[in-house]
Amino acid sequence: MKRSIVRGAAALAAALACTCALAAGNTIKIGVIAEMSGTFADFGQQITNGAKAYMKANGDTVAGKKIELIVKDVTGPAPDVAKRLAQELVVKDEVDFIVGFGLTPNALAVASVATEAKKPTVIMNAATSIITTKSPYMVRTSMTLPQVTEPMAQWAYKSGVRKVYTVVADYGPGHDAEKAFRGAFTKAGGEIVGDVRVPLKNPEFGPFVQRVKDAKPQAVFVFMPAGELALGFMKAYSERGLDKAGIRLLTTGDLTEDGILEALGDHALGVISTHHYSMAHDSPENKAFLAAYAQISPQRPNFMAVGAWDGMAAIYEVVRKLNGNIDGDKAMQAFKGMKIKSPRGPLEIDADTRDVVQTVYVREVKKVGGKLYNVEFDQFPHVKDPGK
Ligand code: PHB
């Protein structure tokens, strides 16, 4: 009698487990929230293409489950839209992961949804330091501005630069970059002779750049988000003759990202930047990435595409570790401390902060085979986000 009860309970447990597996289905759904239209449409293209390239190169089945991307257009810096899309992805689409986020305000807006739904959320670009502290369910595979900026300040001082003017976009990552540059540069012994913040929407660069010229610094340090703003700044920099006045341009790699270099043209030659990824990085992993990306898009990939590629690599690893049964808490455990051989170089997800630890390269824009590239010539290995 007793034995049959035990047997009955075991059968029930097995039946329940079976229903669970069925309910979970044979698909791992990944909701992508990205800027697919408007001024920042290139961010969404880079992110979705990077993710698709990873799937092309590595197959779309992991641990017996099919990987499916569900892409939602957040349209630009639109936190309310980002939050609504995240809620829809959780409730209607029943996704297993939320990913994407070119822009900081969109990533920040989703933190509370990630926490309430216990939904692992992979930040593939947005780079304001604070983002990953806003939810224990967030992990980042891109960079943080302080992480790529401090090496620039240290390199500048080491190279003899003593007086710098800073110009940043007036929102999260710009504020982070301004603070990190000032902190590291003055600590080394340098002086900040002026600083200015440029609005994110419809910026007029001319007057800001003129102010820099009039202050006669040795160099200007700039953070602009990749794309239109970077183009606008570079145009004003050469139109107002800062290069001819001998004011060197130091920047994070956002300004000289691979996708826009050809549009910047020869004005960009000689610009020094620090960043985590260059198309010209010489490694088998980068060759594989470039080959896969070329099958998805004729455009050049940039660091956002690599952030997405690595985000997918991290998710594939989590799905393998959990044997296809995704649980929010277990997934976050699996992300922590993970090491990835990225197209950019070695990458680790810090177990405490869920942020990236990586090499930051110093690069110069040069012509190679008639085309412009960020050519790496120095590096800072194993850099953590200094703010944490
Ligand atoms: C951001 O909004 O966090 C951001 C956007 C573009 C960049 C870097 C950071 O190039």
Whole-number mean pLDDT: 94
Structural class: alpha/beta
Largest sheet: 9 strands, mixed
| Helix fraction bin | 40-55%
Q: How many individual helices?
A: 12
Strand content: 15-25%
Please explain how this structure is put together.
- The protein has 12 helices and 15 strands.
- With 388 residues, it is of the alpha/beta class.
- Strands 7, 8, 9, 10, 11, 12, 13, 14 and 15 form a 9-stranded mixed sheet that branches. The protein has a 6-stranded mixed sheet with strand order 2-3-1-4-5-6, sandwiched between helices.
- The longest helix has 23 residues, at 2-24.
- The chain is globular.
- Residues 102-104, 126-128, 173, 225-226, 254 line the site of P-hydroxybenzoic acid (PHB).
Question: What order do the helices and strands come in, and which of them pair?
Answer:
Blueprint: H1 2-24, E1 27-34, H2 41-58, E2 61-62, E3 65-73, H3 79-91, E4 97-100, H4 104-117, E5 121-123, E6 138-140, H5 145-158, E7 163-169, H6 172-188, E8 191-198, H7 205-215, E9 219-223, H8 228-239, E10 248-252, H9 261-264, E11 272-275, H10 284-296, H11 303-321, H12 328-335, E12 339-342, E13 345-349, E14 356-368, E15 371-383
Parallel strand pairs: 1-3, 1-4, 4-5, 5-6, 7-8, 7-9, 9-10, 10-11
Antiparallel strand pairs: 2-3, 11-14, 12-13, 13-14, 14-15
Helix pairs in contact: 2-10, 2-11, 3-4, 5-6
Residues 102-104, 126-128, 173, 225-226, 254 line the site of P-hydroxybenzoic acid.
